[in-house]
Each structure stands twice: as C-alpha cells, then as structure tokens.
Amino acid sequence: MKLACSSIIVNHIYGLFVVACTVGIDSLLIFLSYTLILRTVLSIASRLERLRALNTCVSHMCAVLLFYIPMIGLSLVHRFGEHLPHMVHLLMSYVYLLVPPLMNPIVYSIKTKQIRQRIAKKFEFIKSLRCFQ
C-alpha cells in the first residue's frame, strides 16, 4: 500500500467499515442477548439468586470488554496511525495479544470469595509494611 501512486483512503475506509460492522454486529447481538438475560434474571423471585446471576453477567461483560477494547484500539492505530512511532504499533499489538488472555482468569477468579480474601490480606500486609518505613 505504501507503493501505491494514488490515494489509498478508500482502502482505509473499507477496512474500518469491515471492523465497525463486525464489532457492531457482535455488539448488537451481545446487547440483545444480555437484554434477554437481564429480563429473565429480574423475573427471578429470590433476591439472592438475582444477585448471583447478575454477578455472573458482570464478569462476562468484563471479559467481553477486555477483548473488544484492545481490538478496536489496535484497528484504529493500524488504520490511522501512520504518523505514530513504530513502538506504538508494537505496544498496541502486544496489548491486543496479551491483555485479554492474561486478564480473563483474573476477571473470573476474583468472584471466588477465598481468592478475594487472600488478595485483601496481601494488600493489608503491604499496607502494614509501609507504616513501618
């Protein structure tokens, strides 16, 4: 594309259109499914069961956002970031490849009560160490 003699803006717009349609259709279907899930969850009689189901939905939404936000950022940097340093392109590609799989277990495991308690205990220990300095 760098060797083209004419403007390649049509290629950029087409690529952005494909990404926007893909993300748009996915987002629309995810939104519709979560609307149906939310409607079903709110019809549950037990308050505790409603909260438990909503807690699961929040974790799933965080996982979806962890996937889509880096993907959108990478596609925008790739399409419109010709003037940006090469390091920005590399950094965004690493974020896209590494952040979702690394954060996904954290998102789903933070719901476990024992793990939350251990993390809180570690932070309390670190906080107590700072008091001694």
Automatic annotation (TrEMBL):
<protein>
    <submittedName>
        <fullName>Olfactory receptor 51G1</fullName>
    </submittedName>
</protein>
<dbReference type="GO" id="GO:0004984">
    <property type="term" value="F:olfactory receptor activity"/>
</dbReference>
<keyword id="KW-0552">Olfaction</keyword>
<keyword id="KW-0807">Transducer</keyword>
<dbReference type="GO" id="GO:0005886">
    <property type="term" value="C:plasma membrane"/>
</dbReference>
<keyword id="KW-0812">Transmembrane</keyword>
<feature type="transmembrane region" description="Helical">
    <location>
        <begin position="12"/>
        <end position="37"/>
    </location>
</feature>
<dbReference type="InterPro" id="IPR000725">
    <property type="entry name" value="Olfact_rcpt"/>
</dbReference>
<keyword id="KW-0472">Membrane</keyword>
<dbReference type="InterPro" id="IPR050402">
    <property type="entry name" value="OR51/52/56-like"/>
</dbReference>
<dbReference type="GO" id="GO:0007186">
    <property type="term" value="P:G protein-coupled receptor signaling pathway"/>
</dbReference>
<keyword id="KW-0675">Receptor</keyword>
<feature type="transmembrane region" description="Helical">
    <location>
        <begin position="87"/>
        <end position="108"/>
    </location>
</feature>
<dbReference type="Pfam" id="PF13853">
    <property type="entry name" value="7tm_4"/>
</dbReference>
<keyword id="KW-1133">Transmembrane helix</keyword>
<keyword id="KW-0716">Sensory transduction</keyword>
<feature type="domain" description="G-protein coupled receptors family 1 profile">
    <location>
        <begin position="1"/>
        <end position="108"/>
    </location>
</feature>
<dbReference type="InterPro" id="IPR017452">
    <property type="entry name" value="GPCR_Rhodpsn_7TM"/>
</dbReference>
<feature type="transmembrane region" description="Helical">
    <location>
        <begin position="58"/>
        <end position="81"/>
    </location>
</feature>
